[in-house]
């Protein structure tokens, strides 16, 4: 099958599958869970940075926003999280935070399984899926923390590596060149990690690459365009007042949820058309 024919077949299969009523409320559901998970996730990450790496909470969250959000959307998240305080870094706090955040993974897991099974099943049962979502969210947070540590101390790590191999170079200048490519690669791998571990069906990594690329690019484009819209055209505070921040985030998460779902669907129709 020629590439053009395969793309056309993928689009046809994707549009046909999207007519399933199961998908109609998915984005709204996931955007709600994103809101519930946002504060626990950011607080867990910031607590690691402040407790272990002695970073100021406001500086840590601001630094995270420089990498995971546009400046406009990042300011929304920063206001929301800082306003909720830090909390104690205890085992109970960690478990509760991860459990609260795992609703996102639970919802994503169910929509992924439903898509890849052609609507035959959504998982192995509510309790087992919730426990699996808890473990998956914990691993996701650890991967995010790892990525942040690499980006935060990249110049130090690079300087150490250069000394070991006997190269006398300015690690700071090299790191300034490598920082954003590495950030993009880590961002792609974090999305790929979720696409890989969420479905019950075991998949090869190369099978999730098309959807991961689509979702990675799509999330960046949607975030950029929505940031421009929200801060240049929309005026949520005029209608929603003090709830404007929550409303803006809900709309943003709603669009992101659709991108994430379309990434899953791309992987599905890619697999379905590879034999044609």
Automatic annotation (TrEMBL):
InterPro entries given in the database record: Virul_fac_BrkB
Domain of life: Bacteria
Bilayer disposition of the protein: Multi-pass membrane protein
Annotated transmembrane regions: 21-45, 80-101, 133-154, 174-196, 208-226, 238-266
Any Pfam family: Virul_fac_BrkB
Main location group: membrane
UniProtKB keywords: Cell membrane, Membrane, Transmembrane, Transmembrane helix
Compartments, as annotated in UniProt: Cell membrane
Protein name, per record: YihY/virulence factor BrkB family protein
Organism: Gallibacter intestinalis
Species classification: Bacteria, Bacillati, Bacillota, Clostridia, Eubacteriales
């Amino acid at each position: 099958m020629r590439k053009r024919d395969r793309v056309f077949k993928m689009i046809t299969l994707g549009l046909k599958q999207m007519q399933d009523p199961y998908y109609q409320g998915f984005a709204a559901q996931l955007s709600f869970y994103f809101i519930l998970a946002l504060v626990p996730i950011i607080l867990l990450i910031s607590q690691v940075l402040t407790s272990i790496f002695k970073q100021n909470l406001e500086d840590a969250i601001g630094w995270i926003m420089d990498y995971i959000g546009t400046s406009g959307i990042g300011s929304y998240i920063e206001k929301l999280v800082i306003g909720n305080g830090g909390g104690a870094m205890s085992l109970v706090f960690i478990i509760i935070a991860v459990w609260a955040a795992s609703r996102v993974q639970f919802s994503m897991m169910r929509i992924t399984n439903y898509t890849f099974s052609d609507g035959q099943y959504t998982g192995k049962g509510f309790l087992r899926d919730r426990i699996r979502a808890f473990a998956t969210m914990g691993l996701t947070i650890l991967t995010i923390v790892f990525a942040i540590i690499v980006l935060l101390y990249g110049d130090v790590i690079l300087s150490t590596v250069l000394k070991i191999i006997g190269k006398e170079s300015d690690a700071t200048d090299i790191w300034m060149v490598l920082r954003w490519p590495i950030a993009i690669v880590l961002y792609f791998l974090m999305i790929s990690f979720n696409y890989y571990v969420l479905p019950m069906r075991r998949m090869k990594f190369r099978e999730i690459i098309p959807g991961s690329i689509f979702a990675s690019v799509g999330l960046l484009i949607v975030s950029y365009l929505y940031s421009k819209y929200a801060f240049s055209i929309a005026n949520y505070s005029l209608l929603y007042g003090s709830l404007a921040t929550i409303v803006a985030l809900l709309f943003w998460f709603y669009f992101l949820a659709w991108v994430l779902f379309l990434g899953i669907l791309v992987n599905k129709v890619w697999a379905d058309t590879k034999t044609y």
